[in-house]
Every structure is written in structure tokens, then in C-alpha cells.
## 1
Amino acid sequence: GTARRKRFTAPPARALGSRTVGTDLIVATPAFLDLTVVGLEALPAVGEERFAGDLVRSPGGGAITAVAAARLGLRTALVAPLGTDVAGEFVRRELELEGVTVDGAQTARTPQTLVMPCGEDRAMVTVDPGARARAADVAALMPANGVAANLEQVHVVPEGVRVYLTCGNDDARAFAGRPPAAMSRGAALFLDVHDAQLLAGAERLEEAAGALAASVGTVVVTQGARPAFAVLDGERID
């Protein structure tokens, strides 16, 4: 649906110890244009045609994190590359309307995902040219309170900076059953139930969440239409 929005005015820079922080959160997580099929009657089988009520465009991937942080009043900057194509122009415009500083490199094409919600879950198809934020992009906006990144990007975050990690299905498949040691740098890890089980190499959700929480102090698991839960310092919080 549509939401009424107003231009966001960022608060002034804040002192943190002996340094001045001009950015609360730097988002390095790849940003996408999401194309969401609304009201899909069923996922089509091969050779079938199914119908839906609408097709909605919205910022996706790391852009979701950036918008949410800005709406919480955080000074937020996106350094994930966006394309010079129509998709990139749309995502950039939407982020700037939300008060997010867009400061990443420009590429020819923007990653795009077709999201097909069905029942209590969804299926997705992604086209990703593979451009990623660089360590130099993050360093250029330091100092900052934290950086949002996915599992393959921990190396772009300077040592000593708080890291908020996300894990999508691509990362979960790449690190299935063998989470990277760098994951322990994360202040928190956010992922869905399928990816939690795949990443941890565990069939039971409780076992998967517990194994991941042994490396990261806070693990947040989403469960589709069901409420998310967190494991915080070994304790499950529903």
C-alpha cells in the first residue's frame, strides 16, 4: 500500500567519547529494487499462468535496513552500489525522501528481486550483477556507531566497529553448515528460519538458533507470517 511520508531532518552530530559521530549507521548490505507480487493466488507450476492483484516496487535488501534506521531517527548512510538504470534511480529517490544519505559507488545495473508471497511464506527470484560496497566506501564515512553488512562483507568493516549482520539465502547456501569465523564480530545476526537451519547445518530450529547464538550474542530469527524471536545471551525471547 501507500504511506504518507515527510522529509526527514537528521539530528545534529553527537559526541561519543572523545570523537564526533556524524553517522549512526552505515549500510553496506547490497540494496535491491524489490518487485512484489501482491495477492498471488498460488505459485505457478511449469507451464501454468497464475494471477495476482498488483505488482509493487519498493527499496529492498540493505535499503530496507536503511529506511527503517532513518525512520527510527538514526543518521543513516547507504554505501551499497546502486545502478544508473531506472531501478537505481527509483531506489535512490525513495531513500533520499526518507532522509538516507546515498553515498555508494554507481554501477550500470541495480540488483532486482521478484518477491512472490504465497500463504505464510514467499518465493523469490533475484538478478544480481554482483557489485558490492568496498572497505574504502565504509572508511570514508567513519567514525560511525555501527555498520550493517551481510556475512560476506565483514572484511569491509574496520576493527572495533559494531557490526549488524544479515544472512540471506545466498549466504546461507554459501556457508551451509560452516558459518564463517568472522561472524563472531557481529553484535547481532538477522535471518529467517530457513536460512538459520541451513547456515547452522541443523534440522531443528532451536538447535540452529542456539548454535548461531554461540558465535553472535544476539540472533533474531523471522518466521514468515509468524512472530519473530530472538536469542539474547543464550535466552530465547519471543
## 2
Amino acid sequence: MSGGILLRMLLITVAALCCSQLIRGKTPALALLISLAAILALLKLLMPGLQAGRQAIQGLLAQTGLESDLFLPLFKILAITQVTHIAAELCRDAGERAIAAKLELCGAAAALLCVLPLAQQALNMIGAFGP
């Protein structure tokens, strides 16, 4: 990721923070929309880098001969935790701490569901070494 993209991400973040803080007392709903818009703008800047990273990981997996099915649950869990964290923080910014806590619980459950197939594969491998 280039320094130019990081600088743009920093500027978007600072601009959104300043705008949000200026209007939070008068119109909290608009402050939340500014936060959402900043997140979308940051994701748009980040997408090319994420796609390049995905291709690099696929290339590495192809070189090692490992199945991508083994690593897919790990990437899903990483995505679930990050999306859950961002959504929970938005809830907290809106003053909804209870909803944020429930959202985090749901994110943990979703991550657990993603890891179950990997755990099943590991148990099958262990069983193959048994008596």
C-alpha cells in the first residue's frame, strides 16, 4: 500500500472526525451518517490493496500445494471480527451500547460457526492416525 493511499485515508478520517464533532451536539444522526460515509470512502480506497493481497495469498497457497479450504475459515473469521468491531463501534457512537454488546456476541457466534468445518477436518485427521 502506497503512502499516498495512507495519507488519503488519514485525511478522510480527520475530516470526518472534525465534521462529526462539529455537528454531534446539534444533529447526532447526521454525525453517525458522516461516520458511515467515511467508512465507505476508506473501504473504497482499500479495495485495490485487498484484491492484490488476496491474489498474493492465492499465489502463495498454490506454490505450497496447501488447500485454500484450510485457510478460508481463518480469513472469514478475520472479516467477521473486523466488520463486527466496526459495526459495534458505530452503535456505541450512536449511544446504543446494549445493541453493540449483542452485535459482538452475534459476531463471536458467527466466527465459531466458521471454524467448525476446520475443527471437523482436524478431528478427521487425528482420527486417521488413531488405532
